[in-house]
Amino acid sequence: MSEERKTPDRPAEAAEQSPPQELGPELLRKGLAADPEYRGEHPEPRFFFTDEAEDDFGGKTMTLNLGPQHPATHGTLRVILKVRGEKIVAADTEIGFLHTGFEKLSEHMSYQQWVTVTDRMNYMSAMNNNVGYAIACEELLGVEVPRRAQVIRVILSEVSRLADHIVCNGLAGMDVGAFSLMFWAFERREKVYDLMEAVTGTRLTTSYTRIGGVFRDVPADFDSMVKNLVTEFRRFLEEMRSMTIGNRIFEDRMRGVGTISSADAVNWGLTGPILRASGIAYDVRKARPYSGYERYDFEVPTQEGGDSYSRFVQRLEECEQSLDIISQAIEDLPEGPVLSEDKKISLPEKDEVHQNIESLIHHFKQIMFGHGILPERGREVYSSTESPNGELGFYMVSDGEMNSYKTRVRPPSIFHFAVLPKLIEGLMISDAVAVLATLNIIAGELDR
Amino acid sequence: MGTSLTPEQITERLSKQFGDELSVYLPPGERAARVAIVSRESLEDTLSFLQTEAGLEFDFLVDVTAVDYLHFDDPSIQERFAAVYQLYSTIHNHRFTLKTPVPEDDAWVPSAVELWGSALWAERETHDMYGIRFKGNPDLRRLLMPEDFPGFPLRKDYPLRGRGERDAFPQYLDSGPISSGTREEGGGE
Amino acid sequence: MGLEKLLGDNIITTSVNSVAKWARKNALWPMPFGTACCAIEMMATLSGRFDMARFGAEVIRFSPRQADLMIVSGRISIKMMPVLLKIYEQMPEPKWVISMGACASSGGVFDTYTLVQGVDQFLPVHCYIPGCPPRPESLLDALMKIQDIIGEEDSDDKADEGRENPEIETEEETEESASAEQGVAEPSGS
To answer: ∠ CA(C110), CA(C84), CA(A17), 5° rounding?
Structure first.
C-alpha cells in the first residue's frame, strides 16, 4: 500500500495516517485490526416496533434472513423477518454492506474532485447527485452559474430522473411477477445512456458538473436527440400504463400493501415520490427553486392511497411532468458559456493554458495544493435538491482549506428504509418484496 | 400555506422565548443563514418549542448530524463536537439549523425521537460515526459499521485508511487455479 | 473424473474431456454478486441490447449452489466480505471468478477504512475487468476469456491439485501441475 496517493492530503494529517503496513501473507491471515477481539459482528436483531415480538406463539415463529445477497433486495440490504407461516410478525433491518466512507473521503479530496464520488451514491441517476453537490458548493462559495449551464443541468437531471423512475417501476414489476417490464425499462434506459454518452462521455457515472457550471458543452445534435427521447418516452409510458394500470393481478398485488399515512410520512422524514404518494405536495423544486426551475411550468402530482400502487402510479405521473419540463427547457436553451467566467473557480481551456501565461497561472493555482477553491473559513451551508428518491441534502462546513472540513450527505433512502420494519408487519413475505421494490432503496446512497 | 419566516425572524422568536440560553451565530459570507446554538440542557425545550409554536411549526426533521471541531477552532463552539439539527416546516415552508455543543469526555445529547420519528436512524448514524450517545433513543446500535468495530470513523483522529480492519479476512487461494503467479506464496498448495 | 484412472490417457478420455470442456464453457451459469454501480452495468449486459444469453450464460441463478461463475461487481466493504466468502464457499467446484470493475479488482477510487482493496487478496480471480463502471462489452469480453481459460485447462490438473495419492504422481503430471500454478494449463496428450 503506497503512501503517495493521488489525492492531496493535508500535511497535518501525516500523523493521523495509519502506520505503513507490510502486508505479507501471514499478516493477512492473522488479521491486522487494532483491536484483536474484532470479528466484524452483526448487531442482534431487535424487533421493537411490535409488542408481539416477545411472544413466541408457542414456538411457531421462525426467523428468516432476506439478504444481503438476494435477488429481491435492490442492493445490499438485510431484512430479518420473524415469520409465522407466511405472515411476518416482526422485522428488523441491517445496512452498511456498501459503506465506503464517502464523507471521510471528502475531507481529503478537493471540492472539484469529490464530484466523481457523488456519482457513485445514487448510481441510478448520477446526474442528480452531481447537480446537487455542485449547487451546494456554489452556495458555499457564492458563485453564479451561467444560464446555459443551468438549463443543461435541468435537462440532464430530468432525463436521469426518468431513467431512475422507469427502472424502479420496471424492477417493481419484476418483483411482483411482470418480468417483461424490467427488460423494457432497461431498453429505454439504454436510450438514456446513449444521450449521456454523447454529452458526458460515459454511460452511468457521469461526473459532468463542475463548480460554476458543467464540464463541457453539449454536442451539436443535442436538440434532436432530446426531442427524440421525449417522444420515445411518452410512448413508453403509455405502454407501461397499459401493462399495469387496470391489470387485475398487478393491482391486487400492489393495492393496500405498505400503506403510509401522510402524518406518518412527515413524521418519519420521508420525501420524494413516497411523500407525494401519501398526499403531501412537497417538492424541493417548487419549495426552494434552484438552477432555474422557477421558469418552467410543471405540477406536483399527489396520490391519495399511500400504498405501493400509489407509489407506482406517482412515479409514472412524475415521469410525465419531467417530460414536460424537458420539452420546455430544450426550447429555452440560450447561447453562452457553460462554465463560470470566474478564473478562481473554473479551469481555463487547455489550449489557452499552453499558450497564455495568465491561464497557466490560473490553472496552476487551482490544481496545486493550498491554492484552488478556498471558501471562507467557518462558512457552512445546507442545500438540498430534489433527487428522484426525495430530498438529497448536502451539509458542508468549510475551514478555509482546499478540502471540505465536513460534508454530510442527507440521503433520502435512509429515512425510507427506517420505516420498512413498520410497514411490513402483518404482511406476507411476497408483499414485503413489493413494498421494498416501490420504496426504491438505492444501497449506494443508503450506505455511502 | 402560512407565511414563511427567515432565519433572522426565527432566531428572534427563539430569543424572546429562551433569552440567555440561546446564542445566535452568523456564518461568514453573504446570504448566509443564521444558526442558533443552544446548550444541551435546553435542547429538548427548544426543539419542542420549534415543533409546536404557532407560526414556526417545524414538523419535519430533515437531518441530524455532528461536526468534530478537533482541527478547527470555531469561535462559536467551544467543545469538541456539535450536534446539528436541520429542520423544515411543510406548513410554512421555512428552514432552520440548530446546533448544540457536546463535550468530548461526556458526549451525550438528549434524543429527539419523541418529537420526530426520523431522528431514530439519523441519531443512530451520528452515534455510529462520532460516538455521541443520544439519551432516549431506543435503538442506539451501530448502523453502518459492524457492531464491534473499534473506533468511530468520522472523528478527525481516525485515519482515512483505517487500522487494518479491511485486511482481516482469511484467504482462499488453494481452491482452484490461480489467475496469476504474482503472489509471494506461489499459488495453491 | 474416474475415467482416467481406468483407461489412462488415450483418445477416449481426451475426447470426453474436450466435450466436457466445451459443455462447461458454453453453458456457464453466472452468480451475479452485484453490490453497486457495476451491478447496474451487469444488469444492462443481461438485458436486451448486450445479450449475455447468446454466450450461453443465460441462467442467472442467485443461488450459489447452482452456479459456476461468480461475477463480483461493485465495491466490497468489510461487512460484505464475509458474505462474499461464504457464498464463494457454497459454490461447488469447478468455479471461476470474474472481478468486475475497479473497486472489486483493487479498491478503485476509494482507499478508505471500510473497503477491501481488491477481492483478489482473498479469492482467486480468473479475470479482471477494469473500468468504473466497465462497459457491457468489457464484461462480454471477460466472459469470452473465461471460456478460453476453461477450454484450455485440464480436468486432470484440477482433480489432482492437492491430492496426495502417489499412484497418480507421474513425471508428466508433476510438470502439468507446475504449469497449472502459473495460470493456464497445457492440455494433456494432444
So the answer is: 30
- What residues of B are in contact with residue C82 (Cβ under 8 Å)? 169
Instruction: Provide the shortest C-alpha distance from residue A107 to chain C (in Å).
Output: 12
Q: What subunits make at least 3 CB pairs under 8 angstroms with C?
A: A, B
Residue indicated by cell numbers 440548530: B98
Q: Do the domain assignments include residue C46? A: yes
Q: Which three cell numbers, joined as nine digits, stand for A395?
A: 451539509
What residue spans of A111-178 are helical by DSSP H?
115-119, 126-141, 147-175
CA distance C96 to chain B (A): 8
In a domain, C184, yes or no: no
Using 50 as the pLDDT threshold, list the residues of chain A that sit under it.
1-34, 53
B149 touches chain A (CB under 8 A): yes
User: Cβ of C57 under 8 Å from any chain A Cβ?
Assistant: no
The two beta strands, C30-34 and B133-135, are: unpaired
Cα-flanking dihedrals φ and ψ of residue A192, to 5°? -65, -40
Helices A147-175 & A126-141, crossing angle to 10 degrees? Answer: 140
Q: Check if C123 contacts B (Cβ < 8 Å).
A: yes
Residue of C nearest to A23 (CA): C121
Q: List b or e across C98-131, with b for residues whose CB sees 16 or more CB atoms inside 10 angstroms.
A: bbbbbbbbbbbbbbbbbbbbbbbbbbbbbbbbeb
Contacts of A406 in chain B (CB under 8 A): 67-68
Q: What angle do CA A331, A116, A318 make, to 5 degrees?
A: 40
In a domain, C8, yes or no: no
CB nearest C109 (choices: A117, A123, A447):
A117
Cβ–Cβ pairs < 8 A, chains B and C? 88
Residue with cell 493456464: C184
Number of domains in chain C: 1
CA distance A423 to A274: 13
pLDDT score of B38: 86
Task: Show the domain range for C122.
Answer: 18-155
Residue C71 C-alpha cell reads as 461475477
Q: Which of A264, A399, A415, A417 to mutate to test the interface with B (most CBs of B within 10 A)?
A: A415
Q: Which of B121, B149, B174 to mutate to test the interface with A (most CBs of A within 10 A)?
A: B121
* 3-class DSSP state of B129: helix
Our CA-based measurement puts residue A196 at a distance from the nearest CA of chain B, in whole angstroms, of 31
Residues of B in Cβ contact (< 8 Å) with A384:
62
Q: Within an 8 Å CB–CB cutoff, is residue C113 touching chain A?
A: yes
DSSP C182: T
pTM for the complete prediction?
0.85
User: What does the pLDDT read at residue C167?
Assistant: 46
Structural domains in chain B, sorted by start: 7-172 (3.30.460.80)
- pLDDT tens digits for B130-164? 999 999 888 888 888 888 788 888 988 888 887 77
Give the H or E element holding residue C33. strand C30-34
C83 contact residues in B (CB cutoff 8 A): none
Residue C169 falls inside a structural domain: no
Residue B56: band (very low, low, confident or very high) from pLDDT cuts 50, 70, 90: confident
- Nearest-angstrom CA–CA distance, B162 and A146: 41
Give the type of residue at C55.
F
Query: A24 and B184 in contact (C-beta within 8 Å)?
Result: yes
Q: Provide the CATH number for the domain around residue C135.
A: 3.40.50.12280
